[in-house]
Write a structure and sequence with these properties.
seven-stranded antiparallel beta sheet; binds FE2/S2 (inorganic) cluster; 9 helices; alpha+beta
Length: about 350
Amino acid sequence: MPRVRCASTPAGCATQWHTHDPHRPGAAADRITAPSPSSEITPEDAAAFGVGDQQLARLTGAGGEYRARVRLTKGQRRGEAFVPMHWTDRFTGAARTGGLLAAHLDPISGQPEAKHGAVSLAPLAVGWEATLLIAPGEAGDFAGRDDGAYWARIPLAHCQRWQLAGGETDDSPRDWLAWARQWLPTAPSLWSDDPAGGRLRAAGLENGRLRWWLMVAPPAELPGLSWLDARFAEATLEGDVRRRLLAGCDAGEADAGPLVCSCHQVGQTTIVEAIRAGDASVEALGARLACGTQCGSCIPELKSLVEEHAPDTVDAGADAQALDSTTQEESGHARSEQAKIPVRVA
Ligand code: FES
């Protein structure tokens, strides 16, 4: 089996440091705002290993396994896979870089060197994927997380987000409403399902307050999660807001994409659109959107987006494909239109 060299950095990826407080003891886990555990590789390596952009994959190294979502990038070197540090067992089932590579101790200082090693890469076979948002206090140790091949917990401002996947060996569709009744704090209050297609959206409310929201479908079908996240902070949901819960957005709402610049609250979709309109440098983006003009921690990601999406560096077809894949990334921000399947209310 072909192998690539794996590299992780001591600082993780930029989105893990957006509190601007990299030295607060014990706070690293709280800072994880990255969409999910990931592995960045070139499109050429992805083709060689048989994995696609945003597909779940398993990396296997001398220390064990790392399960993550593949992200294709032209900024990575061929033959190398980047994986971010700081995902711990509290936040994911199998994405600790310390568990992937063998640790070599410096004979004098005793410091471990665990940032480079050879790994193999293969698709992670799953039969279903789901996104669960659950209210604080209900979610600390969500027991249903281990009912599959992959899980990751991502703290949002007002709820906890769980990415779940599994079902490689399931030979019959799962009854997701029964699953929700078993694992979630309140019974489903409204839902929209397509059993034949294996899709479901559902939400649970208690005294008018949102307690959980579930989508069973590939993450590419997620709406923007900031609108839903804000609903968890409301004492009661009524009228139009309640009716829009399964869609996950206000009617006609534009989606800025996952946050890239936290200082100025600028999202990836907004940035990619600006690049494609001609602002194809970090300076031009700063002048138009202000991103990258304060702490600067988002500048590496801005450079990467410029490299990937600038009109003169990619052909139109590839660029359209890349934009499509980034706007559907797992971080929850893509399509505001819900699948047209019947809605049921309990
Ligand atoms: S995150 Fe601080 S300038 Fe972008």
